[in-house]
Design goal:
The complex is a heterodimer of chains A (about 280) and B (about 290). Chain A is an all-alpha fold and about 280 residues long. Chain A is built from 11 helices and no strands. Chain A is globular and about 75 Å long. The chains are: A mainly alpha (about 280), B mainly alpha (about 290). Chains A and B meet through helix 1, helix 3, helix 4, helix 5 and helix 6 of A and helix 1, helix 3, helix 4, helix 5 and helix 6 of B.
């Protein structure tokens, strides 16, 4: 006789097992970061020496500064371009809309290695075609470097901003805008005083999104960077190629804490229901 | 009215131009370079050729393409199989508990990708805790190497893509009307039958999205095989990077990329097309009625 109120425990067990799977490696790294021994195979005592070494390593600080500079510039432009695209897509009924949204949305699913090689080939072709000419006529030396990294980051971040902002635009109540216009507000006035405040949580969430993505990116940066450029992911990867240096444990813990805070703030912003349809 | 249209045109223009230059043009270049010869300096030669394409049939490429394909399929299957019960579990929780669990699943998803791979290198390391545990219970001996093989690659792929699979399925499952499942039970259906005939069709759209968002990055995986895999577990992504950085053969790299791009875009276009057909059919049925 089957019990009707009985619900299978299988989904819950599966969820818990998956969480164990997701967190075990991270916890092992976190514990190892406080371990005096190198691989965490045996506990040889509590120590903060990996954190000390991390803070003394100048190469990491240089990489961190590069990462933040790239992320800030890329986030600014990606947020601007992404928001403009969201506004255009939201209002448009033009026949090009299909192509436009394909241009904006397909980068979200194209594997990063393909975006990386595509951009590298584009930059290589531009450099070999115009590089010599630019040097002779303007004395400008062009090459792969911070500029190409920033261009690449803007490109892969902006689609995420559009996705988030457009989501917010589609959720909010159009009657608010119509009310403003009925009361005699001009288009620009309505935009700055009504539309912008309502979609601003979406814009901020989109900016946080692209900031995180930019800091996180390894593959695309690796393809379009110049010889000497390092970002934090590039640094970690080259350190990993040499083995499993224990300072990275400490760095991982700092990254994890940062992620927790960022995810928490972004979730808060996205669930803010002010000005949205019920 | 024309004024509104014109202003919208200028609002949309900068991003459109940006994406044409830095997204559409690179895609086009990848396809074009497939048909270009390589010159002795590692650049691109003059004229057109089909030889790059012919060389794809060469010694080890088919093996690597095949391996990329099946590792991608297996990783996707496992992720979906895990994500469905999780989504079910999440959508039946109280909203407070659900937010906590959702956040727990999202955090690893947002943690730096390299850090996650690094964590696995530490976890599976020959001097690490997990290895010691396996030796202790007799499942491995001192000489076993857990890293640098395709099982390590597969494990880390699954680890990385599980949140990708959970989010779209959960988004659909959350809106599912669970009283339908109770109704099926009242009518005598077993739990599994109810799941198969009532719950699964209800979330099928989310499952299909999940398949896409896991399979596509899995096909393009480069860092995972590069860092936890070995020479016997190379994937197409590794080969592309090698052709660019090691032996500087851009047309070869392009040909492999073009292949990967087709593997990504064809199922995507297929999905959009099928969904359009379905909605047209549904509309026609509504019109008929």
């Amino acid at each position: 006789m089957r019990n009707y109120t009985h619900r299978s425990r299988f989904p819950f067990v599966m969820t818990m097992l998956t969480l164990v799977f997701l967190y075990t490696p991270l916890i092992v790294v976190a514990v190892a970061s406080f371990n005096a021994s190198k691989y965490g195979g045996a506990w040889t005592g509590f120590s903060l020496k990996w954190y000390e070494r991390l803070f003394q390593d100048n190469a990491i600080w240089d990489a961190l500064v590069n990462t933040l500079v790239i992320a800030l510039i890329a986030t600014f432009f990606a947020t601007l371009l992404g928001t403009l695209a969201a506004l255009a897509l939201h209002r448009s009924k033009h026949k090009l809309k299909g192509i436009y949204s394909a241009l904006v949305y397909t980068p979200l699913v194209v594997p990063d290695i393909l975006q990386g090689i595509g951009l590298l080939l584009l930059f290589e072709i531009v450099l070999s075609t115009f590089g010599e000419w630019m040097r002779r006529t303007f004395g400008i030396e062009m090459g792969l470097g911070m500029t190409t990294i920033v261009i690449a980051h803007i490109t892969f971040c902006l689609s995420y901003v559009t996705m988030v902002v457009l989501g917010r635009l589609q959720e909010f109540d159009r009657s608010v805008i119509e009310a403003a216009q009925d009361l005699g507000a001009s288009g620009l006035y309505t935009f700055f005083r009504v539309t912008l405040p309502i979609i601003s949580p979406g814009i901020i969430a989109g900016a946080l999104f692209s900031f995180t993505l930019s800091i996180d990116d390894f593959v695309i940066t690796f393809f379009v960077k110049g010889a000497g450029d390092t970002t934090l992911p590039i640094y970690i990867q080259s350190a990993m190629r040499r083995g499993t240096p224990a300072v990275i444990n400490a760095l991982s813990v700092i990254f994890l804490l940062m992620t927790f805070v960022l995810v928490f703030v972004t979730q808060r912003l996205l669930t803010d229901k002010k000005g949205l349809k019920k | 009215m024309w004024f509104k249209k014109a202003s919208n045109f200028f609002v949309g223009l900068p991003t459109f131009v940006w994406l044409l230059i830095f997204y559409a043009l690179p895609v086009l270049i990848v396809f074009l370079l497939t048909f270009k010869p390589v010159d002795s300096a590692g650049g691109i030669g003059a004229g057109w050729t089909l030889s790059t394409l012919c060389e794809l049939g060469n010694p080890n490429y088919p093996l690597i393409i095949w391996r990329t394909f099946w590792l991608g399929i297996v990783a996707t299957a496992v992720c979906i199989a895990v994500a469905i019960p999780i989504s079910y579990c999440l959508s039946r929780m109280s909203s407070q508990l659900r937010n906590v669990f959702l956040m727990l699943i999202i955090v690893p998803f947002w943690t730096n990708f390299l850090i996650r791979i690094y964590a696995w290198r530490v976890f599976l390391h020959s001097d690490g805790v997990f290895k010691h545990l396996l030796v202790l219970i007799g499942l491995a001996d001192e000489s076993t190497v857990l890293l640098y093989n395709q099982w390590a690659v597969l494990t880390v792929m699954i680890y990385t893509y599980i949140p990708f699979a959970v989010l779209p399925i959960y988004a659909v499952a959350e809106k599912f009307d669970f009283s339908l499942l109770d109704a099926a039970k009242d009518l005598g259906a077993s739990s599994f039958y109810g799941f198969r005939k009532v719950f699964f069709p209800g979330i099928a759209k989310g499952v299909w999205t999940a398949v896409m968002v896991v399979l596509i990055p899995a096909f393009g995986a480069y860092l995972i095989p590069d860092l936890v895999g070995g020479p016997t577990s190379e994937l197409v992504g590794d080969k592309i990077a090698q052709r660019v950085f090691n032996d500087r053969n851009l047309p070869h790299a392009s040909a492999l990329s073009a292949l990967l791009m087709m593997a990504v875009f064809l199922p995507l276009i297929g999905t959009v097309w099928i969904r359009k057909l379905k909605s047209r059919k549904a509309n026609a049925e509504v019109a008929d009625a």
